[in-house]
Structure formats: structure tokens, C-alpha cells
Amino acid sequence: MKADFVITKYLFLACIVSVPIIASALPSDANQPIRLLADRATYSERTGVTTYSGKVTIEQGTLKIAADNLTVNLDTNNRSIKSAVATGRPATMQQVVTQEKGLAKGQANRIDYNAVSGIVTLTGNARLTQAGSSFSGNTIRYSLSAGDVEANAGGGQRVELVFPPSDSNSRSGLR
């Protein structure tokens, strides 16, 4: 009986993990079931910290996250998510933002999500791609609501931005 309660509690927490992340994505994502898999899950009622470890995957509609570890910090008063951190080699995330913008994919050693600001920060070998464009650097900050991207280099490296050619140029390019 206690095991069933613990599993139910984790499933509930898994459900609330993805709610803020999907706020600016396809509306249909919010209506999809959430599937979270991990080798281990722990929750502290006192601190509001939930930790998932070992080949963590989360799927809900077009949202997919894969990481070695995922830590979610909940507000202890109302159980809403304050922040989430995914780590891996690399941790990855992808989601269809809108039909027009298409699929956004991100990967980094660490992915931080701030639920208050709606900012996703990718750190360490960070890469973000969307609609044929890509940004890479040591740190990338991506606003889910505004779509703004800020990339920073580190360790003597440079930021790389790649943009696809426009349709009119692609037909008359080099042959």
C-alpha cells in the first residue's frame, strides 16, 4: 500500500513537471498523457525537491526531455514548479513551439528551466536548433515566451550561428 502511494505521488509530480514548459508550445501538448521513466525517483516533502536519476525521459505530446538526472524544485506552499535542472552528456530537449516555428531542439551538459521567467538556459557544449537555424556556444539562454535567444562563448571559443538560405537564394545558389 505504501509503495502504491509513493508511485502515485511520483506520477503526480511528474505531471506537474511539464506543465510550465509546455505553456508556449502546441496547445494539444497539454492534453497529452505524460510519460516519465527513470531508474530512481526521490521526493522531499520538507524541501519540495524531487530528483529523478538514471536514463530519465519525459514525453508529453511533442515535448521530449532526456537526461541522466533531473531535479525539480517546487514551491513548498502551493506545489508549483519554481525551477528544474536536467544534466547529462548531453541532456536534450525538444518540442514543437508552434506549427509555424516548428521543432526546437536543445542540448547541453546542463539545462536549467526557470518557471518564473520562462527562461531555459543551456550550459556546457550548448546547442539550440529551430527552423534550420542553429546557435552554439558555452551558454545559450532561450525565452520560451518571447523566442529570444542569447548565446555566449567561453574558454577562448566563439559563438556559432548558422542560418539557412532564404527560399529565393536557395534555387539560384552555387551549382
UniProtKB/TrEMBL annotation:
It is found in: Periplasm. InterPro entries: LPS_export_LptA (IPR052037), LptA (IPR014340), OstA-like_N (IPR005653). GO terms for cellular component: cell outer membrane; outer membrane-bounded periplasmic space. GO terms for molecular function: glycolipid transfer activity; lipopolysaccharide binding. The keyword DNA damage does not apply. One of its GO terms (biological process) is lipopolysaccharide transport. Residues 38-146 form the Organic solvent tolerance-like N-terminal domain. The keyword Protease does not apply. It comes from the Bacteria. Its main location: periplasm. Gene3D superfamilies: Lipopolysaccharide (LPS) transport protein A like domain. Keywords: Periplasm, Signal, Transport. Residues 1-25 form the signal peptide. Involved in the assembly of lipopolysaccharide (LPS). Required for the translocation of LPS from the inner membrane to the outer membrane. May form a bridge between the inner membrane and the outer membrane, via interactions with LptC and LptD, thereby facilitating LPS transfer across the periplasm. NCBIfam families: outer_YhbN_LptA (TIGR03002). Component of the lipopolysaccharide transport and assembly complex. Belongs to the LptA family. This is Lipopolysaccharide export system protein LptA. It comes from Moraxella catarrhalis.
